[in-house]
Predict the 3D structure of the following.
Amino acid sequence: MTVTEGVKTAVRSRATSIASPPDPSSSPRPTATHVVPVIIPAERPALIRYGVAVGVTLLALGVTLPIASLLQRVILIIFWPAVIGSAWFGGAGPGVVASVLSIALANYFLLGTPGELTFAPADLLPLGVFLFASTCVALLTDATRGARRVAARAAAQNAEFAHELEMQAIELEQQLEESQALSEELEQTAEENARLHHETMSARLGAEQSARVADRLFALTARLSAAATPAAVAEAVLAEARATFGAECGRMSLLQDDGSTAHLLAQFGYPDDPAWRTYAVSTVGPSRLAVETGRGVFIESNADARERFPAEASALTRAGVETAVMLPIADGRVIALMSLSWSTRHPLPTEEREFMESFTSQCGQALGRAMATEAEHRARELAEEANRAKTQFLATMSHELRTPLNAISGYAELLSLGLRGPTTPEQQEDLARIMRSQRHLLSVINDILNFARLEAGHVEYHVTNVPLAMLLGDLESLIRPQLAAKQLEFVCDPVPNGVAAQADVEKVRQVLLNLLANAVKFTAPGGRIQVSSGHDDARVHIRVSDTGIGIPLDRRGAIFEPFVQLHRTLAQPAEGTGLGLAISRDLARGMRGELSVESDPGVGSTFTLTLQRAETQG
C-alpha cells in the first residue's frame, strides 16, 4: 500500500466512525457515502395540534359510548391512546388538553347523570388519577418526542459532518494526487535544472575558453599590427605562442617556392645552430605531412613519435623533447612552418589543437601581408633605382646632345651671316632648315631634361601671389610666327582686375606656351585659338580653347602620359616627343593646381589650368 492509499483509507475510516457509531450487529459497517438522510419532523401550527387533540378525544368518546356497558370501571381506557397520540403529535399542551377534555366528556356522557357535568365524590379519585397519569404520560411523550427530534438533528448534523469529511477526504485525495504529480514534476524539473546547470557550466567554460582565445588572438593581432617584415612577424608569433601555450622551444621557418627548403625566421629555446638557418624539408615526417595536408601535426609523446614517425623519433629523444607540434602557416598555400615543443608530457586536447590552428591561421594572413609588403618594397626600390638610372641616363644624354647642337646652331648662324664668305640663296635656305631642325631637336632635348628633373624631384617652385593679368599678358607674342604661318585667329579675353593666383610665373608661362603650341599644331589653317579666364572663391581657371581636330573620349586620360602622341602615324608623323602635356600637368600639380581637358572630336578642345586663388590687398 502506498502512502497516498494509506491516507485515503484513514480519512474514510474517520468519516465513517463519526457519521455512524460502531454497531456489532450490523455488517458491513456503513460509510459516509451510504448514510441514510434523517427526516426531522417539522413543528406543526398550534391550531392543527390542538385540533387533532380535540378530534382524537372525540373519536375516543365515540368509540367508548357503544361499549361503555362493557368497560364499566375502565371507562377511560379508550381515552388513553387519545391522550398519548395527542401528546405524540402535538406535544405536552395538546396532551394535557386531551386529558382534561377526556375527563369532561367522560363525566358528561358516561359517569354520573348523563347530560350533567357533575362530579360525584366517588368519581373524583379515579378522574384525578387519570388526569395526573395522563398529564405525566403527555409530558413523557412530549419529552420522548423532543428527544427524538434532538436525536434526528444530531443524526443530520453527523451525516452532514460525515459528508463534509468525505468531501474533505476526496479533496485531500485529489491534493495528494496533485502533490504526487507535483512531486514527479519537481523531480523532472530538478533533473532538467541539473541538465541546464550542466549545460550552463559547459557553456560558461566554453565562453571562458572563447574569451581566452579571443583575448590571445587580440593580443596576437596587436603584436602583428606592428610587424612589417616576415622576421618581425615570426618574432611576434613565437612570443605570443610561448606566452599562450607555454612552449619551451619554438621555431618558425619560411618555405622556399618549391617547398623543399626552409629559411629560419626566428626561434626561442634552441641553440643558435647555423645548420638550421636554411635546411631541407624531409620528404616524410611531420614537416612534410603538415605541408601536404595543411593541418597541424601533434605528437603527444615519444611513444607516439616512434609509432607514427620512427625516423624522427630518435632525434626528438636526443633533443629531450617529449611533446611536439608542427603547425603549417598558410596564406592561400602553406608558406611557413612553426614548431613548438615541451620536455615533459603536455596535454593536447581537441580545444587546444583547434586554438593552435586558429592561431596559425591568423599568423598566415599577417605573414602573407608582410611578405607582400616586403616584395612590394623590393620592387619599389628596384623601380626607383631603375628610374634613377633612366633619369640619369636621360640627363647625361641630353647634356651630351645639347653641346654639339649648340655648336651646330652657332656655325650655321656664322655661315648665314656671311662671316665665312658669301652664300647663295639656296645655301641660305639650307642653313635656315638646319637652324629650324636644330631648334626643334633642342626643344625635344629640353623637354626630356625637364621631364627628367620633374621625375627626380629636382624642380624648384617659387610660388607667389601673382595678378592674373600678369600671367596672361602678351601671350600672342610668344606664338605670333606660328599663328601667322597657319593664318590662325588668336583672341585673349579681358582679365578681371583684382584677381590673383598662387603660382610660379615661369612655370605658368611654360604650361601656357605648351598648351598654345599644341593648339597651333592641331588646329587647321584659318582656325581660332582663344584664351579666357574665370575664378571662384578658392580657385582661378585659365582656359586655352581651339577649333582643332579634338580628342576622342577614350583617349583623354592618355594624353597626359609621357611620350603619348594621339595623332602620330607613319604617314603623318607629329612633331615633338609627347612630353609637353605630361610636363605641364606635373608643373600644375607642383603649384597645388591641376590641368584638365574637355573636347569634342572635330569641334575642338579646351584645356583648363586651375590654380589656387590668392588673397588680394586693396
